[in-house]
Amino acid sequence: MEGASTIARKTWELENNILTVDPPDSASDSIFHYDDAAQAKVQQEKPWASDPNYFKRVQISALALLKMVVHARSGGTIEIMGLMQGKTDGDTIIVMDAFALPVEGTETRVNAQADAYEYMVDYSQTNKLAGRLENVVGWYHSHPGYGCWLSGIDVSTQMLNQQYQEPFLAVVIDPTRTVSAGKVEIGAFRTYPEGHKISDDHVSEYQTIPLNKIEDFGVHCKQYYSLDITYFKSSLDSHLLDLLWNKYWVNTLSSSPLLGNGDYVAGQISDLAEKLEQAESQLAHSRYGGVPASSHRKKEDEPPLAKITRDSAKITVEQVHGLMSQVIKDILFNSARQSNKSSSDPSDPEPMITS
Amino acid sequence: MAPSSSSGLTFKLHPLVMLNISDHFTRVKTQLNPPPSSCAAGNGHSSGDAMIVQNPRVYGCVIGAQSGRTIEIFNSFELIFDPLTDTLDRTFLEKKQELYRKVFPNFYILGWYSTGSDADESDMHIHKALMDINESPIYVLLNPAINHAQKDLPVTIYESEFHVIDGIPQPIFVHTSYTIETVEAERISVDHVAHLKPSDGGSAATQLAAHLTGIHSAIKMLSSRIRVLYQYLLAMHKGDIPFENSLLRQVSSLLRSLPAAQSEKFHDDFLMEYNDKLLMSYLAMLTNCASNMNEMVDKFNTAYEKTSRRGGRTAFM
């Protein structure tokens, strides 16, 4: 039983180009080591000053990810923000830990970070005493429900940061989409300095943006680039997580992604409807204006209708996944059949209590 | 050494706490045993410059909330241990507590944690010191030794109870049981990191595969648990194992709680939700078709324009 599933998983991972790092052992825990001298040296050299595209990748520790996502979700529909600690390693920024800041609502206030400076200084100092030696290496905030990208205010904040606090990274998390899609929605960005022109063949991954934010997105999307994110964990972490699965499977089975996110889905659908109306009026215009309008379209630009189709497909896929879970649970637990093999109450704590 | 607790409190532990403790331990350990490439000296909790310090003890505080008889442990932070007085640094604790209070106003100190394999006598000392913050602190112990044969989480939670030993009431550590509690977002990120799923969209097929794989593994666990129960019952039936009525009662109540939800209302709601989702996929399909038609019409028009400057073709019959 165990063998077949590992083979299946390995095939799947191979097909999807997942680079499985060797299971971390104590030797590879070296990433957790903080080398003061080396970091100070890099600070002096500042290799990022010459190349705006210098940093290409981000490695986030399991702990940092968990903290950020939980913090983001706890804010509900309010944007939260916090800082990340870590170090650099060549062209990679490594995020070891994150902590929350007692500040809310960064979308309308540019100097939210100024308020939190005192907290940040206090926290960093106490942390250094307790053995966490890394410096602040970036900030994160959440965009509940509207995707991972930098708004105008975010871009200006980050440009300021990149002037005075290099190396600095901006991370955005969307907790609502995370829960709805069942996978973590996170993006890491760095801005270009003023006047830098992004190369035209730079392809960024498409994501749905609600109508009221789409202008903000469009104006600034050329001013920053996104970095690849990978995750790492220590050997003890993996060991714990493996064992955790023995208790966790109950939560996986009993989770109901459909129930928690009703508001969000309704919002998505109404947003889609508005976009449809907009697209319809656009098409109506072009019909009277003659067909040549379409021939001026660049190859990469998708007609708005195609975008809408993609959005609707995405929403539907998520919903169908949720529905699948529901149906499976129903079959498992609601049909009392003759051969009562499947007979365990999902909420029964019996397998989980250790004594 | 630790009998079971009888306080009747239920403990819920969040995975974040475990990862916190594990991260703290890994950090201190790697700082003390620098990798061969660098030659930085570590900072020391314990002595030993040249020898490999196997398992340094780290200390910290756990915070959370208590409602009624349920104690939920949400988060934790590190503390400094003062080896001279054998206690935790008090001013530091208060400072950190203040900082955390600003961000998490609902949480307060529930106890402390440490790494090691068993609770020590010296731990009681620290435990007593915390009793003025929380009248009944808890002690979370994580065993950092990686033992692959182990099936259980190496985390134990101890409470202190006063037992009469040698005529004097003394506090000793007693085991308590705990459950793992989680919110949806936490579960997803733990899942994500544990199985290193692809974080980008991937194709619809990969997403589907990922989703179904998760459910499949969960069901596999369920099935293996049930199999164990089944074997147990079989053995009991055959007489290999002595009868144990309490267990039998639990199993029978388990079976009797099936089917889990069978009321009219549930059925109606379930079908309604089912229909909603099917309706959504229908709409999405319609949108897709409309978009494809639109594109086709556009292309048709471009190809068969009569008045185009670029010499359009005449539509031939």
TrEMBL record, chain A:
InterPro entries: CSN5_C (IPR040961), JAMM/MPN+_dom (IPR000555), JAMM_MPN+_peptidase_M67A (IPR050242), MPN (IPR037518). Residues 58-195 form the MPN domain. One of its GO terms (cellular component) is COP9 signalosome. Coiled coil: none annotated. CDD domains: MPN_RPN11_CSN5. Residues 283-305, 336-355 are annotated as: Disordered. SUPFAM superfamilies: JAB1/MPN domain (SSF102712). The keyword ATP-binding does not apply. GO terms for biological process: COP9 signalosome assembly; negative regulation of photomorphogenesis; positive regulation of G2/M transition of mitotic cell cycle; protein modification by small protein conjugation or removal; proteolysis; red, far-red light phototransduction; response to auxin. Residues 336-346 have a biased composition (Polar residues). The keyword Heme does not apply. GO terms for molecular function: metal ion binding; metallopeptidase activity. It comes from the Eukaryota. Its cofactor is a divalent metal cation. Keywords: Hydrolase, Metal-binding, Metalloprotease, Phytochrome signaling pathway, Protease, Signalosome, Zinc. Pfam families: CSN5_C, JAB. Belongs to the peptidase M67A family. CSN5 subfamily. This is MPN domain-containing protein. It comes from Microthlaspi erraticum.
From TrEMBL, chain B:
SMART domains: JAB_MPN. The keyword Cytoplasm applies. One of its GO terms (biological process) is COP9 signalosome assembly. Its main location: cytoplasm. Keywords: Cytoplasm, Nucleus, Phytochrome signaling pathway, Signalosome. Transmembrane segments: none annotated. It comes from the Eukaryota. GO terms for molecular function: metallopeptidase activity. InterPro entries: EIF3F/CSN6-like_C (IPR024969), JAMM/MPN+_dom (IPR000555), MPN (IPR037518), MPN_CSN6 (IPR033859). Pfam families: JAB, MitMem_reg. GO terms for cellular component: COP9 signalosome; cytoplasm. It is found in: Cytoplasm; Nucleus. Residues 11-164 form the MPN domain. CDD domains: MPN_CSN6 (cd08063). PANTHER family: COP9 SIGNALOSOME COMPLEX SUBUNIT 6B, EUKARYOTIC TRANSLATION INITIATION FACTOR 3 SUBUNIT F-RELATED. Belongs to the peptidase M67A family. CSN6 subfamily. Component of the COP9 signalosome complex (CSN), a complex involved in various cellular and developmental processes such as photomorphogenesis and auxin and jasmonate responses. The CSN complex is an essential regulator of the ubiquitin (Ubl) conjugation pathway by mediating the deneddylation of the cullin subunits of SCF-type E3 ligase complexes, leading to decrease the Ubl ligase activity of SCF. It is involved in repression of photomorphogenesis in darkness by regulating the activity of COP1-containing Ubl ligase complexes. This is COP9 signalosome complex subunit 6. It comes from Microthlaspi erraticum. The lineage of its organism: Eukaryota, Viridiplantae, Streptophyta, Embryophyta, Tracheophyta.
